[in-house]
Design a protein that fits this description.
This protein is α+β, with helices and mostly antiparallel strands and 217 residues long. The chain is built from nine helices and four strands; from the N terminus they run βαβαββααααααα. It catalyses: 4-maleylacetoacetate = 4-fumarylacetoacetate; RX + glutathione = an S-substituted glutathione + a halide anion + H(+).
Length: 217
């Protein structure tokens, strides 16, 4: 497929959904521009009329690519995979592809939204306990699934969209002080993945909008 201008990612350094897209771009070796959307400053820049016109859901990420705007990280990742060469992000085998989508959806729909900033802000003083409960609950389901599907990575021995979803979710779990030791398969996979360049360069600690006190030394 012929492409012209570089994609533009509207995202936030700490957003796990934005991080997923950054990982996908890195794995595919795709150059892109970033426009930071600060989810906290001025009441949240995602609520501006300008951004609402770009993404009516007022969430990140949103990607302008090939003349269209796509929101929802899994839709973006799958579009990238279908239109760009390089590392495949979904297996060709239908069963493995279904497993990748299952794991990705479990994280993206069953775990991550429950510790989304807009949800946490509504919870108030109990936000840490809330996040810990739902992350742990999700990981208790994810751990036995990964024991069945994993090789070196989440599904077999090839990196996929499932791995792209896993690493940011483990990062969130660690932020909320969830004990990862009780999930040995998740811990093992994450330890392998975070050493891969695409995951390292896309990390929240080294983005354009990362605050100075949170940047990698």
């Amino acid at each position: 497929m012929a492409t012209s201008a570089k994609p533009v990612l509207h995202g936030y350094f700490r957003s796990s959904c934005s991080w997923r897209v950054r990982i996908a771009f890195a794995l595919k070796d795709i150059e892109y521009d970033q426009i930071p959307v600060n989810l906290i400053k001025d009441g949240g820049q995602q609520h501006t009329q300008q951004y609402k016109e770009l993404n009516p859901m007022q969430q990140v990420p949103a990607v302008e690519i090939d003349g269209v705007t796509i929101s929802q990280s899994l839709a973006i990742i799958q579009y990238i995979d279908e239109t760009r060469p390089g590392t495949p992000l979904l297996p060709s085998d239908p069963k493995k592809r279904a497993q990748v989508r299952m794991i990705s959806d479990l994280i993206a729909s069953g775990i991550q939204p429950l510790q989304n900033l807009s949800v946490i802000q509504k919870i108030g003083a109990e936000k840490v306990q809330w996040a810990q409960h739902f992350i742990s609950r999700g990981f208790q389901a994810l751990e036995p699934i990964l024991r069945e599907t994993a090789g070196k990575y989440c599904v077999g021995n090839e990196i996929s969209m499932a791995d792209i979803c896993l690493v940011p979710q483990v990062y969130n779990a660690e932020r909320f002080k969830v004990d990862i030791e009780q999930f040995p398969t998740i811990k093992r996979l994450n330890a392998t993945l975070v050493e891969i360049d695409a995951f390292r360069i896309s990390h929240p600690s080294c983005q354009l909008d990362t605050p100075e006190d949170l940047r990698q030394p």
